[in-house]
Structure formats: C-alpha cells, structure tokens
DNA sequence: CTGAATCCCATTGGATACTG
DNA sequence: CAGTATCCAATGGGATTCAG
C-alpha cells in the first residue's frame, strides 16, 4: 500500500478510534460500564448472546487500548472487576452521538416504508 | 440466539448505526462527500489503498442504507456521481464526535509513552 | 471511465468443552 | 467465578481479470 507515494500513510485519528471501537460488542460493553464497575459475570449477563471467549477477547482489547481497567482479586472464588478509564468514559460521547443519529435514522426509515 | 427467552432481541439503535458505519472505509467516504458530490474516480483517488471491488461494495451498502445517492449518467465516457442524503450528512456529527475523542485519545497516549 | 466477476486468504466471531 | 483451548464458519477485504 502506498508504494512510492509521498503521502506517508498518515493515520487518520478517526481510524484509530474506529479500530478501537471495532468489534461487535465493544460499544455495548462500554455502555454498561459507563457509570459503574462490573464483574465479568455481570457483563456477560447483560449482553445475552456473547460467548465467554469473545467477551474475554473484547475486554482484553479494550484493556490494551486503555479504554478500561481490569482488576483481579486473589480470592476464592476469584473476582475480576472492570471499569472504564477516564478516556474510556469519554467514549460515551461517541456512543451518544451514534445513538442520536440512529434514532433519527430509524425514524425516517419508518417514513420511507 | 435467544431461544425461549422473553427478550425479543430488541435491536439497539446503536447497533443499527454500527452496522451501517461498519466497514473499513465507510466513514472516510462519508467524510469526503460531506460537502460535495464526487465521481467514482475522485473518491478512489482520495482514498489511497482502497480497491475497486471494495469501494464499489461499500458504496453499494451505503446506498442501500440510504446514506448516499448514486446517479449514473448515460454518457460516453460514463459518469457516476455520489452524494450524501440528508440523513447521511447528519452522520458527519458522529464522525466529528469520533474525531474529537480520537484527538484526545492520541494526546493522552503520547503522555502515557 | 466505471464498474462487475472470480478467486483467494486472513481475521473475527461462534460452539463447545475443559480448568485453576 | 473467570476464564482457556479447540475447532469451525462466515465475512471482509485484496489481486486480478473482464466488460459495457
């Protein structure tokens, strides 16, 4: 890609954001974490349809990207809590923008059909 | 999914929006179309790295979802123009929200590293 | 010029079973 | 409880070729 061009493939910020958001369930996860810490199981319960493997993987990615924090307690039974980082909380803004737009969109779809 | 539950798999608006936005290049395309109509080739030039198949496919999806309009002129050489629909233009809001967040995010990443 | 048609591969996500 | 470990299917996206 970009073979012999002088455009240095500058990474558009939006793409960075999209890569972070990308993943079927990530925004859903963020949504539920927006105002409180949740345990692994609690998240899973709130998102019916997600499998453990996928949930774990998306949580790991979000953690890697600095969107949320994972705290494991050395207890029996084990306890792991997830919460949003400050920058993660700010992503809710995007969620809301999406939501506002989606409502408008669905509204006009109704009219179209 | 949701076998024998009473939750009727309500489609979260945000998911609708995500499905529409989803696709590596869609927001980029929207971005370039935000204030003017563009021809196929013009879009392709503005987005280095995208292949024709993918560009065509993403344009078709956006058209199907009512985000943009395709106008083909029966001329030689052929001319095809793309422009945003009203609801498509409103998606720019989301783009901007993403962008604002992404800038903040990249900023703090710099601090972290 | 503006695509459509094929072929192909990598990645994502899902089903299921197992574990410290 | 909070994950791993496998295996598998679907999809997205890329390279290339063909066509109106």
From TrEMBL, chains A, B:
It holds the Pfam family HxlR. Transmembrane segments: none annotated. InterPro entries: ArsR-like_HTH, HTH_HxlR, WH-like_DNA-bd_sf, WH_DNA-bd_sf. It comes from the Archaea. One of its GO terms (molecular function) is DNA binding. Residues 12-110 form the HTH hxlR-type domain. Keywords: DNA-binding, Transcription, Transcription regulation. PANTHER family: TRANSCRIPTIONAL REGULATOR, TRANSCRIPTIONAL REGULATOR, MARR FAMILY. This is Transcriptional regulator. It comes from Methanospirillum lacunae. The lineage of its organism: Archaea, Methanobacteriati, Methanobacteriota, Stenosarchaea group, Methanomicrobia.
């Amino acid at each position: 890609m970009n073979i012999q061009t002088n455009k240095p493939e500058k990474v558009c910020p939006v793409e960075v954001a999209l890569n972070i958001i990308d993943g079927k369930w990530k925004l859903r996860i963020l949504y539920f974490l927006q105002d409180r810490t949740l345990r692994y199981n609690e998240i899973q319960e709130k998102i019916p349809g997600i499998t453990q493997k996928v949930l774990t993987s998306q949580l790991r990615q979000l953690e890697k990207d600095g969107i949320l924090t994972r705290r494991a307690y050395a207890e029996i039974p084990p306890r792991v809590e997830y919460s949003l980082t400050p920058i993660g909380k700010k992503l809710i803004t995007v969620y809301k923008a999406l939501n506002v737009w989606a409502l408008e969109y669905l509204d006009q779809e109704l009219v179209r059909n």
